[in-house]
Each structure stands twice: as C-alpha cells, then as structure tokens.
Specification:
The structure is a single chain. Helix 4 links the parallel strand 2 and strand 3. This protein has a domain of 181 residues: TIM Barrel, CATH 3.20.20. It is globular and about 50 Å long. The chain is α/β, with parallel strands linked by helices. It contains twelve helices and eight strands. 40% of the residues lie in helices and 12% in strands.
Length: 269
C-alpha cells in the first residue's frame, strides 16, 4: 500500500478524541534530534540518518505541508497542513543538514538549546556511555536565526528535571531562558522538557519562568490541552514514510492511529 492510500483508509477528519471544537484543526508538532548516521541501536532511537531525513522532508513537501512559527502556534489560527518542526539538543549537524533546506524552502523550525553547553558537547549522553556529539556554536545559531529559525530552551545542562531540588530546578528553567535571551537578543517563549520528563512541580517552574509554550515527548496532536504540556510525534531513524505521514496528520504512527480508529468505530456500533 502506498503512503497516500494508507492515509485514505482513515476517516477524513481527525479522531474524535483530538477534535473538540467546531471546525478546529488539531496542532501537530514533530520532534527530531540529531541528523547523523546512527552507529548503534540506541542512537537510532533519537537520531536520523541524513538520507532518511531528506527523504522524509521530500514527502513533507510533496504532500503539501509547510512549517509554523511559535507565534502561529500560540495564535490558535492554524491553516491545514501546517506543522511545527522541533529539534532537541542543538547538535551541530543541523547547520549542515537542516539549514540548507530552511534557506531553500523558507521553513521556520525551532531548535531547543541546552543553554550552558552551546559550542560544547552532549555531556548528558556521554555520562550514559554514548559518543560525544558537537553542539551548535553561537555563530552557527546566529546564522540560523538570520534565516528565520527560532530557538527555545532545553534547560541549562539537560538534567532530569523531576529529580532536582527546587533551587536547581529554577536555575535550569529560568536561568537558561535569561541566558538565551541575552545571547540571541529576543524573548524566548518556548521550552522542551529534557527526556520529556515533567510533573506538576516542573510545570509550575516553567510557568513561573515566563514560558508561554512547553513541549513533552508524549505523542499526539494538540487541541484545547495545556500549552505547557504540548505533545509531539517523534521522528527517528526507524520512522518509515507511511508512519511519517500519519504522524504529520495524527501525531501518531500507523498502528496506534488505526487502533484508535477501530476502537472509535467499535464504540459507535
């Protein structure tokens, strides 16, 4: 079955659990990390090979999709087939693999930076035995900024926020915002929770720091849910074309989406 045919097997409008307002379009965000050839199975869970990434982005264009800015997301007035592309960590391969298509197609992705490690390496991954990866330098970030890319905070050092003391939590969340604003000269409105880890205490800290938008790693689309607990569909080296197109539309892969659709039909019988 082709990706187009697979999509047509699902009802034309989004699932009932995702559409609560008359005529409203659920918001969809995709979550990427680095764009480099994975060397291990663990790396393949969060990285994506350049050839696969560019192949999926060709489908993105072929199917008529385009990107959103944070301001668009906050406006609650989003046209169909507009998606927020998010990239966690700020690996320096974004400069070589992402920036050229941003320039060519005028895309506006958002990169979530680890504020205290700009120009450094992924120390949080190395602590778990993974290989060192270079992170974007300030010069690279500013070049991306000139082409319309946006930046949010991914904390100061990428810890598990739910395990921190109150003082450490405030430092990671609020200080990273101030540091990025000083470096970039713009207000930083958005935050991505490291490892997707968030509880009520962490959410409150993010709200108190002044962020208007924050993203988890929970899959799905967003409509009338908490702006500081927004969902994203992860795209990695295991994501095939059909799964990618389902995630663009439904925020989840084929199996999960069709399972929910079957349950919906069963409940109507």
């Amino acid at each position: 079955m082709t990706p187009e045919a697979a999509i047509e097997t699902v009802a034309a409008k989004p699932l009932a659990t995702q559409q609560k307002g008359e005529g409203a379009i659920p918001k969809c965000a995709l979550m990427f990390h680095g764009i480099s050839e994975p060397r291990t199975r663990e790396e393949a869970a969060y990285s994506i090979a350049p050839r696969r990434f560019h192949g999926l982005m060709r489908w993105f264009r072929t199917m008529g999709y385009n990107t959103l800015k944070v301001a668009d997301w906050l406006s609650d007035s989003i046209p169909a087939k507009r998606v927020l592309l998010t990239f966690d960590d700020g690996c320096d391969d974004l400069s070589t693999e992402l920036l050229p298509i941003v320039v060519e197609h005028h895309y506006t992705p958002i990169v979530f930076l680890v504020a205290d490690l700009i120009g450094g390496t992924n120390l949080w991954d190395q602590a778990k035995g993974l290989r060192a990866r270079q992170l974007l330098t300030l010069e690279q970030i500013r070049e991306m900024q000139r082409y319309g890319m946006e930046f949010g905070s991914h904390s100061a050092t990428h810890p598990l926020l739910t395990k921190l003391s109150d003082n450490q939590l405030r430092s990671e969340v609020a200080d990273s915002k101030h540091r990025l604003e000083d470096l970039l000269g713009v207000e930083v409105l958005s935050f991505a929770y490291p490892y997707g880890a968030v509880d009520e205490r962490v959410r409150v800290a993010v709200a108190e720091a002044g962020y208007q938008l924050a993203f988890t790693a929970e899959p799905g689309t967003n409509l009338e849910n908490d702006p500081l607990l927004q969902r994203r569909a992860e795209v990695n080296d295991a994501t095939g074309v059909t799964d990618f197109l389902f995630k663009l539309r439904y925020g989840q892969g084929v199996r999960v989406t069709l399972g929910a659709f079957r349950r919906r039909l069963g409940g109507q019988s």
